[in-house]
Amino acid sequence: MLAALARRLTAGVAVIVGVVTLTFCLLRLAPGDPARWLVGPNATPAQLAAQRHELGLDRPLAVQYATWLGRAARGDWGTSIASGRPVATLVAEAWPATARLVGLSLILSYLLGLLVGAVQAAQSGSRLDTALSVVSVTLFALPGYWLGLMLVMTLSYWLPLLPAFGAAGVDAPHLTGSGRLLDAVRHLALPLTTLTLIGTGGAARYFRGALLDVRAQPFVTTARAKGLSPARVLLHHMLRNALVPALVLLGLSLPALFSGAVFVEAVFAWPGVGRVLVEAVQARDYPVVTAATTISATLVVAGNLLADVLAAYADPRTRAAGA
Amino acid sequence: MRRLWGDRRGAFGIAVLSLAVLLALAAPLVTSGAPAEQRDVVGTRFLPPLATDRYHAFHPLGTDRFGRDVWTRVVYGARISLTVSGLAVLLSVLVGVAVGGAAGYAAGGVGTLLLGVTDFALALPRVVLLLLLAALWPPNAALVIVVLGLTGWMTIARLVHGEVRSLAARPFVEGASALGAGRARILGRHILPNALTPVIVAAALGVGNAVLLEAGLSFLGLGVQPPAPSWGNMIASGRDSLVNAPWVAAAPGIALAVVVVACTLLGDAIRDAYHRDVGHATWDV
Fold first, then answer.
1. Cβ contact (<8 Å) for A253 and B283?
2. Are B120 and A141 an interchain contact pair (Cβ–Cβ within 8 Å)?
3. Helices (DSSP H) in B26-153: which residue ranges?
4. Which of A77, A141, B21, B94 has the fewest CB atoms within 10 Å distance of its CB?
């Protein structure tokens, strides 16, 4: 168990070093000189040379790479070209908003997806199963930014119920206690619904398959033959065994959820990492883009690792196979 | 193929995708005018669906803020979206089959190295990588194809690797080897053709994903550039007129969703028709 964990940790660190290396190579391969972006079109050659020196671009590639790795390891991402603020501060300010949105949507879409998947598996082949399949595959296929816009159109413009963008109203600093909480919840409602609906579509598809696989196992037949009620078989025998695929799904769906969050944050002006990333890309703010890339890759690797560990904890068979 | 038609999901998927490809190919025949055509902008902008303008031109899906026909742009957008996604998936399949085939058939170090590279690429968040590349190079359709292709081959490589490993142990491979066939010939003529079903499934799902991602990049202004119509940049341009002209953003989104649903259902149907478990590739966004 420990040896397997150590091996996975090493692999995870290797992936993160790989990401840092990859961003370094891509930045050097890309057309255009980052120094030129910083000094602007009217700079003299001397000013350009001074900027190149400050960025370390005049040093040998190997030295630049070593410096790059060292700074990445210390979390020193430089300053944003667009805002002049330290990149580490920008990202540190943004990530709680993303974590809140993605975390809540993960929990909600898991619960809803499990519910829908369980109903479908219990009634597989029925009209209800078909109808729910159509709904889940459609939700899964919808682009998040488009679903978000449609929700804004109906719930913010036609029926003015919910705010269309941001994480807090302009008057939020003047609100107290419950008023402030209500304001935060109202602002969270639309982006969370968008991400959750799409996540539910995927989760329901997955859980339906996982539960049907479990149902074909001999121990389910045994439980039925013992005369247990269908509800008890589902709750005590099938769900417990569908837990491992659920944990695997957690690892698999993290990158997807994060990707979804990038677009949804862009639509709803949600002040998270995704929006920071998109705005940095549009402004060609390289230091912010590379930092956001590396940090999100790290989060995804960490999520996968956590899912592996949890799956090993939940299923003795994987534990033995992984060791 | 017959089994696919018998499956309602397969029939729906094939029908919708054929219709979309047909419409895209026949774009000049089923639309009136060019996708970027603007006539009297003031007089023809934001016409609702089913309206006829002062030139007696009929607009089944209305017009956008430059008076351009939304139906025409959706159909021409299908050309771009489907071409970009199709070529991207083709690139993914080529790279994936090459890497997966080599990894599965080459024993020892090379195989391990290739699998390691695949796992590394699989661990990267695809959208973030896409955004990084789109930020570094000036956006255009060719870049989107290359970027989508080079970030989508890993699932296919894993699937091909698994298939090749199990096929390589089968008697007919041993037979071919005994007859004196070389390793490259065995891999190319005997193993890979038998490993194609999961690749087709992954490709069908991959086209759906690629359509979504291309639209996403174009929506953010990092993909296909206006005035060329792509479903993504059409949704982006309809965003500002959501209140008074919701059809501008709604129409391309519905087209997008229908095509992606068709790809997903077709992938499911092919998988079930051949009773192969290809894992849960739908999650590889």
1. yes
2. no
3. 27-30, 41-44, 70-105, 109-123, 126-136, 141-150
4. B94
